[in-house]
Amino acid sequence: MSSPNFGTYKRAIVRQIPDSIRDHSEAHEDRGFQGLPIYAPINLEKARQEHEVYTQTLRDLGLEVTVVPADESTPDCPFVEDICVVVGNKALLTRPQGAARRKEVDTIEKVLTDLGLEVHRIRNKRATLEGGDVVFTGHEFFVGDSACSNPKGHKILAETFPEYPVLAIPLDPPKFHLKGAICMAAPGVMAVGESKWGVRAWKKIQKHAKFTYEPLWLPDKVFADHTCDVIFFNGNLVHCKSQEGAESVKRFAERFPDVNRVELTIGELKKVDAGLTCCSVLLP
Fold first, then answer.
1. What residues contact residue 178 under an 8 Å CB cut-off, 6+ apart?
2. Is 139 among the catalytic positions?
3. Burial (0-12, 13-18, 19+ Cβ within 10 Å), 106
4. 147 near 98, Cβ under 8 Å?
């Protein structure tokens, strides 16, 4: 089951890491509010080294990468995935839940416009939507009904891409983005975390999805793993390193023996709850 709008890309957008992410990421406030332990501070030098390897890996796999400079006034700006949803030549600029993150939208709007995309933008001040909540299968959207994305945001997503059904998946804290529970690992195959969030999402997909998918179940310890957060494009599967999830890597190898699998980490940025998909937007 394939779609010309899923899995085939020529370009990517990434954004560099500001110093401010170390002390002012939204993740610090969110974890404190939820009563969760705060991670040790990010080692900025190591985070930037990992981010450069991430960026170069996308290039090595054939993508033309646009690198957007960091902005110290927007600490979470490296997580460009949250700022837009792109399918084909059409992009929807989102409206993140946090006011600080909304400052990122203007910059990404210019980048997308300069790259020649048809750009739409959420203007409704009661709507929220973040790209980390949006899973596109090539045939339909699954979107988190979460602290970051609400039904008004879902409605605008559906209106922007009317050719694709949109199915909301309930998601409660401490999971805050749907891609922390499910993600596309290949056409028709979903990486699904073995957590209550993953199980709940999969049950709803089985019952209400317009198309049929196969699950690849992966260990999920809420914030410890992120191993279901994977990137599939042009026949490549980018996933966690063995040190981060040996059992998950084993399952990837068993399920995809003929796929070019690439192990990659953004380990330092995990300290602010980032996954692999967070750090790029893929474009046709």
1. 132, 133, 134, 135, 142, 143, 144, 146, 169, 171, 201
2. no
3. exposed
4. no
Q: Is 77 a catalytic residue?
A: no
Which member of 28, 139, 177, 226 is catalytic? 177
Catalytic pick among 84, 228, 240, 278: 278
- Hey, what amino acid is at 229? D
The Cα-based distances of 266 to 216, 230, 238 in angstroms read 22, 12, 12
Joined tokens for residue 46: 């190591």
Do the beta carbons of residue 183 and residue 232 sit within 8 Å? Answer: no
- Nearest Cα neighbor of 166 from 180, 187, 152 is 152
pTM: 0.95
Taking the C-alpha atoms of residue 223 and residue 46, their distance in angstroms, rounded to an integer, is 20
Q: What is the 3-state secondary structure (H, E, C) of 160-227?
A: HCCCCCEEEEECCCCCCCHHHCEEEEECCEEEEECCHHHHHHHHHHHHHCCCCCEEEEECCCCCCCCC
- How would you write the pLDDT of the chain (284 residues) with one tens digit per residue? 557 678 999 999 999 999 999 999 988 766 555 556 667 899 999 999 999 999 999 999 999 999 999 999 999 999 999 999 999 999 999 999 999 999 999 999 999 999 999 999 999 999 999 999 999 999 999 999 999 999 999 999 999 999 999 999 999 887 889 999 999 999 999 999 999 999 999 999 999 999 999 999 999 865 555 789 999 999 999 999 999 999 999 999 999 999 999 999 999 999 998 999 999 999 99
User: Under DSSP, is residue 6 helix (H, G, I), strand (E, B) or coil?
Assistant: coil
